[in-house]
Amino acid sequence: MYQFEPSRVLFEERALEYPLGARLWERFQDEQREIRLIPSHNRVTGLPGISDAEKFREAKKTLVVGIRRTKELASCRPSADYQLVLSTSCPGMCEYCYLHTTLGRRPVVRLYVNIDEILAEAARVIKNRRPQFTAFEGAATSDPLPLEPYSGALSQAIEFFAEQEFGRFRFVTKFTEVEPLLSLKHNNHTEIRFSINNEEIIRKYEHHTPRLKERLQAAAKVAAAGYPFGFLIAPLFFTPDWQKSYTELFTSISAYLPRNAAPTFELITHRFTSRGKANINAVFPASDLPLDAEGRRFKFGQFGYGKYLYAKEEMDLAKEFFGELIPRCFPEGKLLYFV
């Protein structure tokens, strides 16, 4: 079990005005957690620790209950049309995480209590774009599943989108506690994906997360519940034996799913930013992640900062490899994108 158990819970003062905020305040008081009020969820100070690594670990054990005030929904290509931000950060400690760039060295875990307001904005966007379908990504800024026992946000979003003729919801997770979602009415409007990688990458870089076998077991449960489902394989590392190790990964996936299964696949090669590299080196000083810019190509991304990508020749080879591997293992599967 990978239940998130925060060491401390900080409440934005106005969050207590919302029913979810009030319920959580009572819950954590009953559990005798360390709790305190703060003026804003964006101003978190006084966390324990001396080194960056220590403060990072304490931030990952800190839950902040706040209000999401940003109304405008950000783009989320290629995953979806828009981000649907229900939470920020997660208790996992993956060394390569792209949030090292955006959240920095103190990535406290935030959940937002104004879920009705967030979904109302999604409804407004859907209405304005109809009859065009609009897809929303629920994991652009976090892994939302570990917070579900506290927020219920995924359940609420799944049932909301089940009623949206022109709206679709999708989220990705490394975690496995999917049981509360299995009996929900989803109307095939929510796609649940699992972020996976080969065993060596998970062991070396994905700390405090379930292992591959557990994620694949959870994926089988989701598929049996009738959800559209898929796999995000990210980041792809081009190690000397990458073709062999990723072939073995697909063999493992096949062992848990019937051959006529129709998962989607999203493939993202390893990339990093200068800021992300600096933060990774600070909070994981012993990391051996491949963060050398030499041999990489530099490209500006959709959010205005540049990334170091693998060389085009390596990318082209991998795209061809996976383009052949996926239909061989899953004839009904679909590659959504390779970047």
Structure in words:
With 339 residues, the protein is α/β, with parallel strands linked by helices. The chain has helices spanning 19-30, 52-60, 99-102, 115-129, 148-151, 153-162, 179-182, 199-205, 212-224, 242-256, 274-283, 312-329, and strands spanning 8-12, 34-38, 62-66, 75-76, 80-83, 87-88, 93-94, 109-112, 134-137, 167-173, 190-196, 206-207, 229-236, 264-269, 297-300, 306-309, 334-338. It contains twelve helices and 17 strands. A hairpin with a 5-residue loop joins strand 15 and strand 16 (306-309). Helix 10 packs parallel to helix 12. It is globular and about 55 Å long. It starts with 7 loop residues before the first strand and ends with a strand.
Give a quick set of tags describing it.
single chain; alpha/beta; pyruvate-formate lyase- activating enzyme; 12 helices; 36% helix; globular
Any chance you could write out the topology, listing elements then pairs?
Elements: E1 8-12, H1 19-30, E2 34-38, H2 52-60, E3 62-66, E4 75-76, E5 80-83, E6 87-88, E7 93-94, H3 99-102, E8 109-112, H4 115-129, E9 134-137, H5 148-151, H6 153-162, E10 167-173, H7 179-182, E11 190-196, H8 199-205, E12 206-207, H9 212-224, E13 229-236, H10 242-256, E14 264-269, H11 274-283, E15 297-300, E16 306-309, H12 312-329, E17 334-338
Parallel strand pairs: 1-2, 1-3, 3-8, 5-9, 9-10, 10-11, 11-13, 13-14, 14-17
Antiparallel strand pairs: 4-5, 6-8, 7-12, 15-16
